[in-house]
Write a structure and sequence with these properties.
The protein is mainly alpha-helical. About 55% of the residues lie in helices and about 5% in strands. The longest helix has 23 residues, at about 110-130. Bound molecules: fe (ii) ion.
Length: about 280
């Protein structure tokens, strides 16, 4: 779907795609865009984002523009019933990351909050069930709805450091986007938590954790632990070292992540040390 968005931009403008990297750079509409998602995760069918690989620069870059919100999005959960468990898990964890990042984003609003929390609740219950019972259309429908909700949330509230780090990492080592997010989410929650503690408390509650009588330290540790165990039961149990990352790669990844437009709405103003620490802890 992101590829289709890129093709639409080039068809509409006649210019190279990399000229449109960043926010609001498209000045001419493309042809009508109709999207039919076959995973419940990227939410590209409702978002104003396109993430494209630049093999020459070894990174993934973001194009963010209302011009690439699809004109029509057709959601059919039957199309998910042949999705393998591993892909169901990693794409669903991308949707979870969208919802969490949209909720703690500095661009969040009461409307995006509704969608984000609903997506987290739905994924906490139904994503493991969809992995265990791939042919069950009811579970698939719930994950597709969660992806839609997460997409409506993040397309309006934007994202944060998990996606900035994931774009840098995924383009450098060609690791699937959902896997990058799944491994990095717990590390970014750990680093961000003190800067948006009330927001992460609500995320924890949506995830089914008991939070209201607990200190911030206890809630933070419980949420990190919950995310970590959740991804493992979905089959994403690797470290970044397992994916081929070495300590020598971290400086260039850190530099690229700090330039990613998703950093603009992270609840903690990111610095080089924070980004580096997240990569190191995920090794
Ligand atoms: Fe994503």
């Amino acid at each position: 779907m992101d590829c289709a968005k890129g093709i639409a931009v080039v068809a509409g403008t006649g210019r190279p795609i990399e000229e449109f990297e960043g926010v609001d750079r498209i000045d001419r509409p493309g042809p009508p865009l109709l999207c039919v998602p076959t995973t419940a995760g990227s939410s590209a069918d409702v978002s104003q984002f396109a993430i494209l690989s630049s093999p020459g620069r070894r990174l993934k870059f973001a194009i963010i523009s209302k011009s690439i919100v699809p004109d029509v999005s057709l959601l059919d959960p039957d199309l998910l019933c042949t999705l393998p468990p591993r892909l169901t898990g990693s794409t669903g964890l991308d949707a979870l990351t969208h919802a969490v990042e949209a909720y703690v984003s500095t661009g969040a609003s009461p409307i995006t909050d509704l969608f984000a929390l609903s997506a987290i609740r739905r994924l906490a219950t139904f994503l493991p069930l969809a992995v265990q019972h791939p042919g069950n259309a009811v579970y698939r429908n719930e994950t597709m709805l969660a992806s839609l909700e997460a997409g409506l949330a993040f397309s309006n509230a934007s994202l944060g450091a998990v996606h900035a780090l994931a774009h840098s990492l995924g383009g450098y080592l060609d690791i699937p986007h959902g896997i990058c997010n799944a491994i990095l989410l717990e590390q970014v929650v750990h680093c961000n938590f003190p800067y948006a503690a009330d927001r992460y408390r609500a995320v924890s509650a949506a995830f089914g954790l008991e939070v209201w009588q607990q200190s911030s330290e206890v809630v933070c540790a419980a949420l990190v632990d919950r995310i970590s165990s959740f991804r493992r039961i979905l089959g994403v149990d690797q470290t970044l070292a397992d994916c081929g990352l070495t300590p020598e790669d971290i400086p260039v990844l850190t530099k690229n992540a700090l330039l990613d437009p998703c950093m603009a709405t992270n609840p903690r103003v990111p610095d080089e040390e924070m980004v580096r620490r997240c990569y190191e802890r995920a090794l």
